[in-house]
Amino acid sequence: MRAPLSDLPLMLVDARIVAGATTILDDVTLTIADGSPTVLIGPNGSGKTTLLRAAMGLIPLTHGRITWGGREAAAPARRAIMFQRSTMLRRSAAGNIRYALAAADVPRGQRQHRAAELLTLVGLDGLGHRPARRLSGGEQQRLALARALARDPAVLFLDEPTASLDPYATKAIEDIIRTVSARGVKIVMSTHDLGQAKRLAGDIVLLHRGRLIESGPVDEFFARPRTQEARKFIAGELLV
Prior knowledge:
The protein contains eight helices and nine strands. The protein is of the alpha/beta class. The chain has two domains: about 1-80 and about 155-240, P-loop containing nucleotide triphosphate hydrolases (Rossmann fold, 3-Layer(aba) Sandwich); about 85-150, no CATH class. α2 (about 95-105) crosses α3 (about 110-120) and α3 crosses α4 (about 135-150).
């Protein structure tokens, strides 16, 4: 798991997404470079999920462009996304991973071994035989993370990966994110939890009403926010 330098930086240039009369992303220009996780924060409806889905290639831009390593027409195959609410297939935990490996064109003879490796990585070794839908919520999120990693991504997008999880399950997910990041995978994730952003981020991106309000290194963002919106959000005030 190591991000090819040619795939990064990921750049959004004047990225706009409009649905009917609603502007969901409003001319966002942002560079996401190699290194520690980039964490998107902002109120509900700020555009975090839409930005992740657009970068993944799931939503087309209304205007603007997205480039990978300076190339607009050659998005990398090695990118994956984990949604906030992942659907478990009606098969075992290991079967869910093997399905993801097959979708990623991993040769059949390698799938069992690779599935076992991924189960160990996310702390589910010993549970591979268990029906995925009978796992706890935290275990299902770890399994969803393992399925995303089955693509051996250079860039991994995570949409609120610990929403609604208890502190123990949240810590388990955060530990996996640190491990994966240390192996060279670029993590781009959204969160509503400022404490989590401080713990995991290398840099922060604050969105509000689809606009990029402020971005920068995590320590600088929290110690010396440059915008009034950032100061309010850090203080726990509502952005309207």
